[in-house]
Every structure is written in C-alpha cells, then in structure tokens.
Amino acid sequence: MERAASAPVPHRHSHGSPEARAKIVTRLRSVAGHVRGVERMVEDGAYCVDVMRQILAIQRALDRINALVLEDHLQTCASTAIRSDDPRQRERTIAELLEVFEMSSKVQAARTARSPVAGERDRPPRNGKVHRDGEP
Questions:
Q1: pLDDT band at residue 110 using 50, 70 and 90 as cut-offs
Q2: I need a labelling partner for 106 at 20 to 30 A (CA). Which of 6, 31, 130, 136 fits?
Q3: Contacts made by residues 75-84, CB under 8 angstroms, sequence distance 24+
Q4: Are 23 and 66 in contact (CB under 8 A)?
Q5: What percent of the chain is predicted at pLDDT more than 70?
C-alpha cells in the first residue's frame, strides 16, 4: 500500500482512550468480517445490487468508525495539544485536523459524483409505465 506524501509522524505513546480503542477495534473486526462476506458474495456471483448494498453498508460502518476515531482524537490528543504551551504543537494539530477534513470532503465529493442516485433519469419507473416523452 502506498503511503501518503504527508505520512504521520510516529509517536512513542499510545493515542486515544483505551475504551475508544477497544470499541474501534471491535467495529473494525466486524467490518473486516463483513468485507469477507461480500468477497464471498462476489465469488459466488451474487446479484450486483445486493453486493453494492453491502458495500454501501460497509462504507457507512467505516464512516461511523472514523467519527469515533475523530471524537476520541479531539477529546484526547488534540485537546492536549491545543492547550499546550508550545505554539508549534498547537499549529501542527490544527493543520492535521484541517487536512483530515479536507480529505474527508474530497472523498465525500467523489462519492456523491459517482453515486448511482445522481442519475435518477437512468432509473426505470417504479410503476412500470413510461410516458410518451420517455420520462417516468
């Protein structure tokens, strides 16, 4: 896997609360099992829409995990850094948070742009009837 240009600086201590880390690891293991299940669905030739629904569920689960990580980071690491007497530490922490939000916005924009729902006109009508102009 390729590392980002701004690879995280290794720290010598554990980050986040032990409770949050345990909850996050449990959820990640659940997602990993879900991914393996979707992999089997693909191998078995499951219906494409069913596969896509499961992938969307995985993405939502990852979004919730990411929110847990962010919440814990803000309550622990970032909170400590922002209260620090070292202005460089405060600035670094704010820059990291801004970078994460920027990356998150780009990912969300990319998801929205590729969303199958974005092209509603491509969808068949629910009642099976098509109007003369070709629109449902």
A1: confident
A2: 31
A3: 75/17, 76/15, 76/16, 76/17, 76/20, 77/15, 77/16
A4: no
A5: 74
3-state DSSP call for residue 121?
Answer: helix
Q: What contacts 94, CB < 8 A, 6 or more positions away? A: 82
User: Is this model's pTM higher than 0.70 or not?
Assistant: no
Q: Note the helical H segments in the chain.
A: 18-43, 48-73, 79-82, 87-114
- What the block records as the tokens of 37 is 């299940």
The token pair that represents 50 in the structure block: 């069913």
Which domains are assigned to the chain? Answer: 18-115 (1.20.58.1000)
